[in-house]
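User: Second chain of the day. Same drill as before.
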Amino acid sequence: MNRVGDIVIRILHVIGSLNNGGSQAMVMNLYRNIDRKKVQFDFIIDREDEVFFADEIKELGGRIFTVPTFKGWNILSYLKSWNDFFKNHTDYKIIHGHVRSTASLYLNIANRYGLTSISHSHNTSSGRGVFAVVKNIMQYPIRFSADYFFACSKEAGEWLFGRKISEKKNYFVLKNAIDSKKFIIDSEIREEIRKKHNVSDKFVIGHVGRFHPQKNHQFLLDVFFEVRKKDSSAVLMLVGDGTLKHDIEEKAIKLGILNSIIFIGVSSEVPKIMQAMDAFVFPSLYEGLGIVVIEAQASGLFCVVADTIPDETNITNEVKYLALNRSSAYWADEIILTRKTHKRTDNISRIIKSGYDIEQTSSWLQNFYINKWE
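Assistant: Same format as last time:
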């Protein structure tokens, strides 16, 4: 079957949850496109109530395991669960960790059981407050625990691992690639989705992201409020879910714009939904890359994003980076301007040329796994 005989290589991914977030979407894109007769993915999570991708993983041949959520005071039971796991699952040779806060714990245990370890950086900040400080302290030893270091962008790699690691031969920037074919401009799908949501004659501003402080929905609503002052045809289409959704709905009511917002929820049809949008807005406080900005460009959308987003996302020259300390009215003017100046064009060839197509990335990663397995 392959160079390692008839054995299907099984890679253990530590992913936290299986909800439709950025790192999860990236891993699933890779999983769908590798040759699963050669390489299979299994997953360890610590949040059993967040399993959006669980059924698909099982259909693709993957297995899902759980460990306790790390809470500090349960460190002994947390470590025991990992030791027990490796005692009972001796067939793994490679662990690919996407959870950074506890990576120095589980990667050290994996190393003791002889696994090759990969730590993968997907972000450029731990957020704010006490928990962020604790995370930063806990994740520092990763640079001494992992055998290989992956990052979704140059900034994400240097932030988590430090500049010295980012210059070593065991460090790789693995681009958050997308299945670009799914984002090809399709006027029929566009009209279908716009009719479904009754926005055929509207200016549709789109955003994709979970309702979490990082995604900065509060500011997004302020911006949209200003847009509505100048363009009464504007609607805001929000794809995602999360703990702050109720707060966002409450703010929308206070601003009087709730009826102009469409809450899509978590969806597996983001490529189709993006066809219905006219502009994409992404004011995150921080991002490792921002894969949805790549997807939006593949869909032919102009993107107005925060200058906290790595400039590696600008593949098509159709991305405008704005400072978050600029007023919401200023952001609104820039968004409205895109309606007048932007013409939607097919960007797929540029996405592929830039290395963000999933076929290229999945092929590279598959070969990496096989070589390290041997």
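Residues 9-177+357-373 form a domain with the Rossmann fold fold (CATH 3.40.50.2000).

User: Great, on to the next one.
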